[in-house]
DNA sequence: CTCGGGATTGAG
DNA sequence: TCAATCCCGAGC
């Protein structure tokens, strides 16, 4: 089967975030094959990025971000939602791509718009932290179509990150109805 | 050890 | 507009 190998993830995090758009995320679980097309991502790269969990230093939670590329970083947010990331770059350089939205393709029966919803729809939780995403049961298949039109914006929910809050590191398929809705920014 | 808050979501 | 809900990570 043709799937994305480790060298795909061993590159610039922003390039990986863009190149993942249009690819198929596959999870084989309980005899079912769940498939969704990646339509929205965010890049978290390096020690300087204050929006990244790994900006300060290595901790028990973010440790996998420092590992070999091509592994999953899954964490619990707000005590109830899981977020799925793909580790990029070489060992000891902390970086990952957050998967924020999918277009349902097969086996999906609930919403995949938004990072918390897509992990629920794909049956992904913290037991998947650190798993190798270059082979089943959790892996990614290259685009089966041309390069999508890509748009970018600031990342969602990282207002605490100072000047990094406005970095253009969110990437999504232009005019795609499956991209997560961005709540209107509150005035003041 | 305590404590503030979060790469979110859905209800009211 | 706000609560849910739990773990992380900073600081004492």
Largest sheet: 9 strands, antiparallel
Outline:
globular
Q: Which residue ranges are poorly predicted, with pLDDT under 50 across at least 5 consecutive positions?
A: none
Please write the string of helix (H) and strand (E) elements: HHEEEEEHEEEE
| CATH superfamily (homologous) name | Methylpurine-DNA glycosylase (MPG)
Helix content: 10-25%
Report the portion of residues in β strands: 25-35%
Question: Can you count the beta strands?
Answer: 9
Mean pLDDT across all residues, rounded?
Answer: 95
State the secondary-structure class: mainly beta
N-to-C terminal Cα separation, in Å?
Answer: 51 Å
Tally of structural domains: 1
Describe this entry's structure for a reader.
Helix content is 10%, strand content 31%. It is mainly β and 188 residues long. The protein has a single domain, classed as Methylpurine-DNA glycosylase (MPG) (3-methyladenine DNA Glycosylase, Chain A). Strands 1, 2, 3, 4, 5, 6, 7, 8 and 9 form a nine-stranded antiparallel sheet that branches. The termini are far apart. The mean pLDDT is 95. The chain binds a DNA duplex (12 and 12 nucleotides) through residues 42, 44, 51-53, 56, 59-61, 75-81, 83, 85, 98, 100, 114-117, 155-158, 160-161.
């Amino acid at each position: 089967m043709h799937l994305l190998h480790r060298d795909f993830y061993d590159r610039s995090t922003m390039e990986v975030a863009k190149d993942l758009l249009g690819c198929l995320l596959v999870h084989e679980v309980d005899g079912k094959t769940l498939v969704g097309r990646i339509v929205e991502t965010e890049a978290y790269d390096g020690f300087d990025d204050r929006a990244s969990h790994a900006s300060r230093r290595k901790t028990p939670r973010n440790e996998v971000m420092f590992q070999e590329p091509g592994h999953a970083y899954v964490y619990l947010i707000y005590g109830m939602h899981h977020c799925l990331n793909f580790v990029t770059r070489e060992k000891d350089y902390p970086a990952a791509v957050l998967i924020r939205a999918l277009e349902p393709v097969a086996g999906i029966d609930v919403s995949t718009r938004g990072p918390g919803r897509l992990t629920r729809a794909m049956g992904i939780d913290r037991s998947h932290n650190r798993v190798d995403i270059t082979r089943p049961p959790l892996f990614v298949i290259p685009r089966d179509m041309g390069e999508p039109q890509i748009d970018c914006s600031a990342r969602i929910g990282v207002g605490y990150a100072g000047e990094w809050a406005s970095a253009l590191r969110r990437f999504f398929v232009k005019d795609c109805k499956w991209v997560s809705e961005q709540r209107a920014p509150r005035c003041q």
